[in-house]
Amino acid sequence: MELIKPPLHPDRFPDELPYGYLKRLAELNQYESPAWLFRNLSSRSSLQTPVLSVAELSAADWAGNQPTTSAVGANTQHLRYCPLCIGESGYWRSVWQNWVSCACTKHQIWLVDRCPSCYSRLPLASTNLSHCACGARLADAPVEVIDSPVEQMQLFLDEGSVPEGYSIFPREHGLEYSARTALISLLCNWLDYPKLTVHNFNRELKQCGTARVHLVNAAELLFRPGGLETFLFRLSQRDSPEYYTSLILKLVLRLNIDFPQPCFDTLKHQALNYWVNLRKALDQEHGRSSDIADLWEYAEWQVLPHDPK
């Protein structure tokens, strides 16, 4: 398969979705489909695969060879977008397609994934750059303003930036894009664990409407003062004390396994401290004696790295 150089071929924008660039080339050259841009194409559906699109564009020296944001967590079936960006720039951005990408920080509004007229979701294959298949303009979708924690989390995802005084992370955390995506996804899911299966939860994240509540939870934990305490308190309201105390330890264990980087030490320490105080209060309530030092030793042995004796 080979990408054919069309008569009109502007450079790809640095943050442009690869498949969106193919759509833009097809529309500029008045081709019926991006499939017309390829020689020996075996399947039209394969054009929507991010890795394939990147590979073919990288081999085309006339396309600008722009770097592309990681496709980790990418939604490759339906478009999500910022209506104001679509109206201003007329191209699709790669970062919009991440499952945990929820906002446009340029315009400080929520992303959307439905037509403003027929309210259907927007398949990548049948949606034009600026119009739904029904003819409605994507730029006409109503917009909703985001609050500060959501904006800060989106900046953290897109750029890795952490505002001073707003987060439990150090500003120089060193997390790659894939790790930032995985962290937000984990935090989104944990408050609903184990009510939602992984399959159902991923399905919820793929749709802007159902993803929003999960993303707000993660944003408030990371970027609202006292967010971690609120998050842990909500965990401690579940079922029996034995269940929710074990749940908090499991959360820290999961963080320790998936995110061993030093920048997570504060998060783990605060969560363990919350567990210790919770256990101490429960022991006192039931007339059991407990020692803070012993509880700390038990908690750290359960969830923190240690060398076997």
Give the percentage of residues in beta strands: under 5%
Judged by helices, strands and strand pairing, the structural class is: mainly alpha
Number of helices: 11
Side-by-side strand order of the widest sheet: 1-2
SSE string, helices as H and strands as E: EHEHHEEHHHHHHHH
Question: How would you portray this structure in words?
Answer:
It is built from eleven helices and four strands, in the order βαβααββαααααααα. It is an all-alpha fold. The strands form two sheets. It has a two-stranded antiparallel sheet with strand order 1-2. A two-stranded antiparallel ribbon has the order 3-4. Strand 3 (103-104) and strand 4 (109-110) form a beta hairpin. The radius of gyration is 23 Å and the shape is elongated. The mean pLDDT is 82.
Summarize the structure.
The chain has 309 residues and is mainly α. It has helices at residues 18-28, 50-58, 83-89, 148-159, 177-190, 198-205, 208-223, 227-235, 241-258, 265-285, 292-303, and strands spanning 2-3, 38-39, 103-104, 109-110.
Task: Annotate the secondary structure layout.
Blueprint: E1 2-3, H1 18-28, E2 38-39, H2 50-58, H3 83-89, E3 103-104, E4 109-110, H4 148-159, H5 177-190, H6 198-205, H7 208-223, H8 227-235, H9 241-258, H10 265-285, H11 292-303
